[in-house]
Design brief:
The protein is mostly helical. Helices cover 46% and strands 8% of the residues. It is built from five helices and four strands. The strands form two sheets. Strands 1-4 form a two-stranded antiparallel ribbon. It has a two-stranded antiparallel sheet with strand order 2-3. Strand 2 and strand 3 (180-182) form a beta hairpin. Helix 1 runs antiparallel to helix 2, helix 1 runs parallel beside helix 3 (60-87) and helix 2 (27-48) packs antiparallel against helix 3. It is globular.
Length: 192
């Protein structure tokens, strides 16, 4: 029954988000969709592709069909988002950076603040962590926000990604309460 419940949840998310991208006019709308609901579709799709050797053979066809439907749905969403981004990538500059979010939170609260930075590919992890922290609390204490990562790069190719080639180094100078984090990055170019 656990497999059927999981498949039903995945099917529900696929149906709910089928052709959602047709209502978007800007890439920001796609980003906001991902922030509120899209990450759940992503997570359910990830779960569909986990191999489970103890799953009954009768369910393999159902999972295969769900996988194909999921891939078609996210492919369509991805194509529309990419087109919107290509047509107007200045929308991304409207998003706050992680530093701007940090300053806003620090100025807003006199209580201690903890921030956890996650890659967008692990948005589900942040959402689940916030849900666990907020469980049983009288007010919302944790939330997940989307921010643009301001990584500088010099390139004539418009599609590039910066990745860390080594683990970050952390330092905490004795005379301050600020943690310094150093990442060494490489730039990878992707041609369309």
């Amino acid at each position: 029954w656990n497999y059927l419940v999981s498949f039903a949840n995945s099917a529900s998310l696929i149906v709910e988000n089928n052709e959602i991208e047709k209502s978007w006019k800007t890439s920001i709308e796609g980003i906001r969709w991902y922030e509120t609901r899209g990450w759940q579709l992503d997570l359910s799709g990830e779960n569909l592709f986990v191999e489970t050797p103890d799953m009954p053979k009768e369910l393999h066809r159902i999972r295969a069909r769900l996988r194909r439907t999921y891939l078609r749905t996210v492919d369509s969403i991805g194509r529309v988002f990419s087109e919107l981004l290509e047509n107007n990538n200045s929308d991304l500059m409207k998003l706050p950076t992680s530093g701007e979010i940090l300053l806003t939170e620090l100025n807003k609260s006199k209580e201690p603040v903890a921030l956890i930075y996650l890659d967008a590919f692990r948005f589900d992890l942040g959402a689940r962590l916030a849900e666990l922290i907020n469980q049983g609390e009288p007010a919302i204490r944790a939330r997940v926000s989307i921010a643009i990562a301001p990584v500088l790069t010099i390139s004539f190719i418009p599609n590039c990604f910066s990745i860390s080639s080594r683990a970050p180094t952390f330092s905490l100078p004795p005379d301050t309460s600020i943690v310094n984090v150093l990442f060494e990055t490489s730039t990878i170019f992707a041609l369309n």
